Amino acid sequence: MASITITSLIFFSLITLSLALDMSMRSNKEVMTMYEEWLVKHQKVYNGLGEKDKRFEIFKDNLGFIDEHNAQNYTYKVGLNKFSDMTNEEYRDMYLGTRNDAKRRVMKNKITTGHRYAYSSGDRLPVHVDWRSKGAVTHIKDQGNCGSCWAFSTIATVEAINKIVTGKLVSLSEQELVDCDRAYNEGCNGGLMDYAFEFIIGNGGIDTDQDYPYKGFEGRCDPSR
C-alpha cells in the first residue's frame, strides 16, 4: 500500500511538473505578440531608448511566473494587468512605500492603543470574516502613480465601519486626505493610517468620493466640501 501511495505521489508530481513546463514554454514570438497586445490594451508608451525592450524582458519574466503559478494546485489564479511590465521592487517602491520623516518619528510615541478590541480568553470568534460577502467593501479603486496607499487603506476601513454602523455603503474621498491631511502625512509621498484617522475625527468626518473625486495627484485642499 505504501509503495502504491508513493508511486501515485511521484506520478502526480511529474504530471504537475510537466504542466508547469508546458505552460512556461511559450515561444518568443508568442510572448512578443501578447506583449504588443498588452501595450495597446493598457496604452503604454515608452520614450526612453531601449525602454520598450527592457520592459518586454520584465513582462516575459512576469508571464513565466503567471504560467508557473496557474499550473499548480492553488486556490486562486493570477494574470496579466497594467503592472506586468514592472519588477516587484519597482512596484513596492512606487505603490507600497512611505517616507518615514522626522515629524512622524516624533509623533509615533503619541499614538496610543486602547483595550476596546483586545482579545479575551474564552471569546468565541468566527473562523473567518469576509466583509465582501457582507457588502461592506466598495469597488476596486486605483491609486495611480500617487503614493497614497495610506489614504486608500484608511478610507476602505472607514467605509466598512460606516456600513457596519449605518447599513449604508458609501464610497468616500481619498483625495480629501491627499489634499488636506498634511500635518503629518505627505500626500503622494506616503503617510500613515493613524494620522489619517486623527484627521477624519478632527475634521468631523470625510467627504464622499462623488463630491471630492480622486485625481491621483496632490491638489489644493478645498475645505468648503
From TrEMBL:
Residue intervals of the Peptidase C1A papain C-terminal domain: 125-225
UniProt superkingdom: Eukaryota
Stored InterPro entries: Papain-like_cys_pep_sf, Pept_cys_AS, Peptidase_C1A, Peptidase_C1A_C, Peptidase_C1A_papain-like, Prot_inhib_I29
Domain Cathepsin propeptide inhibitor as annotated: residue spans: 35-91
Biological processes annotated in GO: proteolysis
Family, similarity comment: Belongs to the peptidase C1 family.
Xref: PANTHER family: CYSTEINE PROTEASE FAMILY C1-RELATED
Name used for this protein in its record: Cathepsin propeptide inhibitor domain-containing protein
Source organism per UniProt: Trifolium subterraneum (Subterranean clover)
Lineage start: Eukaryota, Viridiplantae, Streptophyta, Embryophyta, Tracheophyta
